[in-house]
Each structure stands twice: as structure tokens, then as C-alpha cells.
Amino acid sequence: METILSSKTKTVIIGSDRPFTIIGERINPTGRKLLAQEMAAGDFSRVEKDALAQVEAGAHVLDVNAGIPLIDEPAVLAQTIQLVQSLVDLPICIDSSIIEALKQGLAVVEGKALVNSVTGENESMEAVFPLVKKYGAAVIGISNDEDGVSQDPDVRFAVAKKIVERVMDYGIAKEDVIIDPLIMPIGAVPQSGREFFKLLYRIQTELGVNTTGGASNISFGLPNRQGINAHFIAAAIANGMTSAITNPCEESVRMAIRAGDLLAGHDENCMTWIKANRKPGEGRRRRRTTE
Amino acid sequence: MSNELDDLYEGILDGDMGATPDNVQTALDAGLAPDVILNEGMISAMSEVGQLFEEGEYFVPEMLISARAMQAGLGVLKPHLVASGVDPLGTVVVGTVQGDMHDIGKNLVTMMLEGAGFEVIDLGVDVKPERFIEAIRENKPQVVAMSALLTTTMPKMGVTIDAMREAGVLETVKVMVGGAPVTAEFAEKIGANGYAPDASQAATLAKSFLA
A102-127 pLDDT, tens per residue? Predict the structure, then answer.
């Protein structure tokens, strides 16, 4: 199972036999009051900074969201995507719950984008899949439907299955669906960690598609969220998760992903780990001395 | 200054298994002598790898890929070394002692010894004293290297040395020991000639026995 995304010149492959894919979450005004105010006022300086910082930190794909109340979200989303792609050469994850915004984003994006997202609701699938097909994109399928988000992992699996089956009716390859099995806050749903890992396993073995999710949801409402997030992500990689929407600018997240890749056998000769952990000033190399 | 040797050296330091055989061939095609290629292009590179490892700058995977690159290069060079009558630096018999199944450390030592230009006879793991003695009689090594990873199998090193003494072969070799629980003190106590704390220093120690 390989999901191929692209930008103007770069290709990113999400898959179970390769290093984990980081979808940078920062360009999202939800819960970021200042960013929301600035974007609404046409000031994109913070977006620029976030884009560059995430690329520097190792993001492979950038999520772009312009969900600000009372603005022309489709236009602002398209504008933000164009701005981001003029700065960085990475595939874009177009993030909106508004169909028109997804449409305008897809119309301007360069390369093969990831649409975030479709749900298992018929209305959602009927609106999003034709767009995904038309623009040759890939799509994140969230495992909730008309009945909302089930706390029963079997139901969430059934919804994921429905999405994967339905997508093929639209002539979209199964590889172009990435399932988000929904990460529930462990503070409120005590078994959500175990359930999520079980779901990951079922999705990869029974459905054969990639997985993603908002990794930091797991720690909502708890102290030391970074500590939970980092260990969760490493455990998720070990259980077969292939990508996450997360913040690569957090060193603890980056370290967890590198450790997860290392333990999953996706870091050839441990070189990524070694390079990230060499002490500063090291890396000297002496030349051959000729007598 | 030879570009061919520099490329070969750099390739081994980078652990470039793909390029190293080609680099050896290029050096041969340039008319460089096989022993010069071996010593100046390859052994010197592995010695630098060992040095970087001892300084904490290189890590085990880097040492491994460098050793693999060197071995790939040796595959091309060996027939030429044989044809031009170049002998190995010396022979080392290597093994993990009786009752001990650990082989990762022993394999690293083997790779570094080969990288230093030794011919290595690797007896594997769980090697009985008699098997060491047999191998000494067969291969006439200058050095015997024993490994043990457990405090419970460590005493077998002393037992093996005693058996070698009784068999009359101990005088013909230098014995070196190593492994996580082993210390220089212990080595001395059981009558070994030396102790090395890691694979790189094992190669250096073996070389020092030849002087």
C-alpha cells in the first residue's frame, strides 16, 4: 500500500515499508487566535514562518487550513495554498469541512494533493469523491458517519471499510484513501489507546490502506501532553501507523518519530537516528594521509 | 597523492558498499599495486573508522557498513593480492567460548580484524577448548581471540587457556579476550596476553602482538 503525493517537483510516498510521513499541522487558525486574526486581515507572515519552520523541522506534507469564522474560507484557503507552495516545494494537505473550499483549493494546488477530509456520511462521500477523482488527488477518510463518532472500535472499523469500498465506485484507487481511525482523548476514553492500536492493525491487514490521525488528540485534558504525544506516536508507528498530522517543530515529536522508525526497521543502518544524535561539533572527517 | 586511493578511502569511510568494488577496480586499472591499494586505500580507511569509533564519533552501524564496504572491495582485490604474492598481516583464530551463544560482538571483532588486514578463522559460538586447540594446530595463527558475554561463561576463557597450555600450543600464540563482563584485570588473572574493550581496540591489540 503506497499513497503517492506530489508538489511541483517533489514526490512523497506514504507506506508501511518506509519512514513515517509527517503532515505538518501548524498552518491552521483553529485554536490559534492570533493567526486567525492575522489571516482574516490578510496578513500571512505567520503562515510563511510556519511553513518554513515545519519544512526545516522535517515535515513531508503541509496541512493548510483556513477555517476562520465569517471569512470567505474558499478564497482564503486557495490563497494560502498558493502562498505556501510559492515558498516551499512540498505536497499540500487541503484541510476544510467546506466542500467549496476543498474545490477551490484543489483548483489551485500544484501536484497531487491530499484532501482532508471525507467522512463515512453519504452526503460527504457524494460531494468529496467526485472532486478527488476530478483533480486526481488522494483523500483522508475519517471513520465517523451519520451516527457520529462511535466509541465502539468495531463500528469505527466498519465505517472505514465502507469508505474504502465506496471510493472504488468512483474510480479512485484504494491506495489513494488514507484512513483516520480517530484518536480519542485517553483522559476521557480510558481504552482509546489500545483500541486505536487494534484499529491500526485491522485497517492495514484487512483493508490494506494507509493510516493517519491527529496525534495530539490523545493527550487532551492531561498534563505533560508532549510526553504522552511523543510516546503515543512511537507506539503508533510500532503498531503500523504510516502518517500523522502533527507538529514537527516539537523536538519530542521528532525524536519519537525517529525512534519509531528505527524500531520499525525503517531507518537504514540507523543513519537518521545517528545523524540526529551526533554531538554538536562531531562529524569531523580526517583525510587519508599519504606518506 | 592519488585520486583513486582517496576515492576508495572515502568510499569505505562512508560505508559505500556499491562504490567500493568499482573504486578498487579503478585503482587496479590505474596501475596501482594491489598491496598499495590494500594498505593505503582500505586498511588505512578501516583504521580511521576504528579511530572515529573509539572517539565516539562513529557508531556501530557505521562501523558495520564500512566493514561491509571493505569486504565488498576485497572481493575484487583478493585475486590480485594472491597473484602478486601479498600475504595477510597475520592470522587470528576467533570464537565465543563454550556455553556462550553471543556472536554480535565477536562478529564485530572479526570485521575489524579483517579490516586491519588479518586473515580471520572464525570458529563461531559455543566453541569448546578442543576446537580452539585444533584450529591453532591447523591454521598456525599468531593470535587467538576469545569472546564471552556472560559472567557464567567468562571462566571458560581461563579453562580454554589452561587446555591450550596442556596441549602445548599456548606458547605459539598470543591470546586476547573481550566481552561485556571481561576486564583487563580478569584477562591478566587467567593468563591472557591482552584485553580489548571494543572491536576497534581488538584490531589494534592484535596488530601490537605482531611487532
Answer: 999 999 999 999 999 999 999 999 99
**Four-point Cα dihedral A99, A102, A107, A108, nearest 10:** 150
Three-state DSSP state, A5:
strand
Q: pLDDT of A180-239, one tens digit each?
A: 999 999 998 899 999 999 999 999 999 999 999 999 999 999 999 999 999 999 999 999
CB contact under 8 A, B62 and A274: yes
Element (H, E) at B143: strand B143-147
Q: How is residue A117 written as a grid cell?
A: 477530509
SS3 A11: strand
**Are B64 and B140 part of one and the same domain?**
no
Mutate to test the interface with B, among A258, A274, A284, A288 (most CBs of B within 10 A): A288
Does the pLDDT at position B205 exceed 80?
Answer: yes
Question: pTM of the prediction?
Answer: 0.84
Of the residues B10, B13, B59, the best mutation for testing chain A's interface (the one with the most A CB atoms within 10 Å of its CB) is B59
For residues B104 and B166, state if they share a domain. Answer: yes
Q: Domain range for residue B50? A: 3-83
Name the pairing type of β-strands A11-15 and A2-6. antiparallel
In chain B, residues 108-167 whose CB comes closer than 8 Å to chain A:
none
B57 contacts A282? CB cut-off 8 A: yes
Residue B200 cell numbers, joined: 576497534
| pLDDT at residue A291 is higher than 60 | no
Is B93's pLDDT higher than 70?
yes
Residue A155 has phi, psi (to 5 degrees) of -70, -40
φ, ψ (nearest 5 deg) of residue A26? -70, -30
Contacts of A108 (CB under 8 A, 6+ apart): A78, A81, A82
B13 contacts in chain A (CB < 8 Å): 285
CATH number at residue B39: 1.10.1240.10
- Alpha-carbon distance of B118 to A19, in angstroms, equals 38
